[in-house]
Amino acid sequence: MIYPETFEQKLGFDQIRQKLVAYCLSPAGAAWVDKMRFSSEVDFVKILLKQNLEFRQILEKGEPFPSQHFFDATDWIKKISLEGNWLEAEEFLHLAYGLETILACKTFLVKSAELYPELHKLSQPVTITSQLSQKIFTTIDDKAQVKDSASADLGKIRKRLRDEQSRLRRLAEQIFRMAVQESWVPEGALPTIREGRLVIPIQAEHKRKVKGFILDESATGQTVFMEPTEMLDANNEIRDLEHAEKREVIRILRDLTGDFRTQLPVLNAAFQFLAQIDFIRAKAKFSLEIGGDHPVIEKHPELIWYQAKHPLLFLSLKGKRDVVPLNIELDQQDRLLLVSGPNAGGKSVTLKTVGLLQYMLQCGMLIPLSDRSRVGIFKDIFIDIGDQQSIENDLSTYSSHLRNMNAFIQHAGDRSLVLMDELGSGTDPNFGGAIAQAILESLLKKRVWGVATTHYYNLKLFAGQRQGVKNAAMRFDDKNLVPLYVLDIGKPGSSFALEIARKTGLPQSVLMEAEKLVGKDLAGFETLVRSLEKERVQLAEKIKKMERQEADLKQSLAKYQTLSSELETKKKEIIGKAKEEAANLLKDTNREIEKTIRHIRENQAQKTETLRVRKGLENLTKKVNTQQVQKEKPVQQKEELKEGDRVKLLGQDSSGVILAIQGKNATVQFGELKSVTKLDRLEKITGAVAKEMASRLTTSSLNVHEKRSTFSNTLDIRGRRVDEVLSLVDQFMDTAILLGQSELKVLHGKGEGVLRKVVRDHLRRYKEVASISDEHIERGGDGITVVVLK
Predict the structure, then answer these.
(1) Pair 202, 185: CB distance under 8 Å
(2) 346 among the known binding-site residues?
(3) Class for domain 639-685, per CATH?
(4) N or C: which end of the chain has fewer CB atoms below 10 A?
(5) Partners of 656 in beta bridges
(6) What is the pLDDT of residues 453-476, one digit of tens each?
(7) Does 341 show up as a binding residue in the annotation?
(8) Hey, where are the domains in the chain?
């Protein structure tokens, strides 16, 4: 149930219908817009939303879905259904074009059945074949004329007609030349047609000199148009042939109409499909315009929305300023939300946003909110918005509000959504607030869902104490006295009445008197609410700051852990290598000693041999000492480090700057990371090290040359989604700018132009872009974007 009858006008849905009609390509599609209705059937709503989403994806990808010849065949089908009636040739031609469009739509959806399953299901009842349109094209040409070949009789009649017309022209030219020679013809006049017959203009004073019939005369009466006797028979013959031609054409069209009369069920289904596709396409176009998306659909009532926007407000402010999005949560525990705050602070807009988006969704339209939002399905929506005073029914504004409240209490249930603006207003505040509280209590007992706005303090206190309803406030800048249009759930809002009155320039004495009249309790409550609001804002800012700091800390910790892990790995590699070298050296030394002992024993310690072996041992000792010196050399020759030196970790490539030295430890800045490490693990970057790093840069430049050799200046993004395309374009532009390219091309196809617009808008953000234009018409036109870089 939707209440009241003026529901759509009050929420602005009638304006959305008008926009959808403007997007339709045919009156048949517009008729579907008029038939669009609110539905509480969950599965049906899901199918409608899926159809909308699939067609939006077609538009986003710029796919070549047919968009021409969306004709409304309603009148044609009615004419065909009448026995003995026939369609005119032009109507048949348009019917053929429409049939070809239907076949093209069906072919597209059959090929894309996996991508667009719900749209494909719509095409399944369509059983027409190309034979129907071909039957028309064999009979009627592209100028909407029945072809000579449509029948043998028509061909003969038209041949005779052309022959007679040719003979009549020759005869007319002969008589006309003679009349000109006799100066009977007005200067500049030529043979012409009157009443469907070829005639010759003759000056009135010479009309008796030409035998024939006068068919007409000029406005001045100085010229008469005569049909000479010699031309009479030819004109009569032509007239008879024209009638015969018309009779034969009607017979052909009647027979063709009869053939199509047997196909009426097929035609009905086909053009019903075309009209429905037109309607879905219009919804998809509107979804793109407002940023509509598909939220999570729940079977039972639920209202947990993120980043919701009023679509009409979004369109009206587009290009001027952004709409502040709405976040709102209603669940099984808290079904009612009481919104308070200053006038013009956005309370009514919040109410209308909830009502309009819920109604749009249950009419099968995508709505502008985050796709992670959860939207339930309601059985009823009731609204009480605006001044509903009625002179005809002798109702005041307050009486009309009460009548609506009565309808809510009588008909609303646990699957109903109730929206009430300025609850309790319009009468004595003491009684109005009490009645409003009683109404809220009654709705809570019936477990009704809803949103209400108010200024009454008793309702704010009620919402703070009663389970099932919670307070919410529209955020307000009390320093500048301007609304922020942000909904804060969980606390009541202040009306800022005195502050706004002070801003308008009311005398201070009047304001002080007003504060006295209000009383300390009420003024204190207002002050407490504003104080809580300030503290809440400050706390929110501190929380955001701490979250940012925590994120930075996590990032730094991750970098440190990565660096520490790399250092530990390198350390283990170096120690393992050193142990291996030491083991090999010890093995070689032991081998030489054993060899020496064996030689001494075998040669019975002869002096000459002993000297030779000893000399060999001395050489081995020198070799070992040399290796030991080479290992100790970096330590012995290590330069003293000081603050400001550029250093690197032993065994690592990353370099940094010493910030401070404390004993044997140093604080080093490695890029964005600060690290404390031992001095003996640091090495000052010398000329040799710098040379080695330069060689690495050379290697990097070789990578750039490799990129240049494989880079293509054309990016093909046809058939891709918008969210894929932007990252591809960014990567393509980064590489092109790095390589110093001068001209690039982005191949996106024509389609609906959505992909082209998104790509070009994104490219204009690059300061390196000098110009953006279409490719030459012979090389692709507006299906390719040419980008010239500075």
Answers:
(1) yes
(2) yes
(3) mainly beta
(4) C
(5) 647
(6) 988 888 888 888 889 999 988 887
(7) yes
(8) 2-128+263-290, 149-258, 297-518, 569-636, 639-685, 708-789
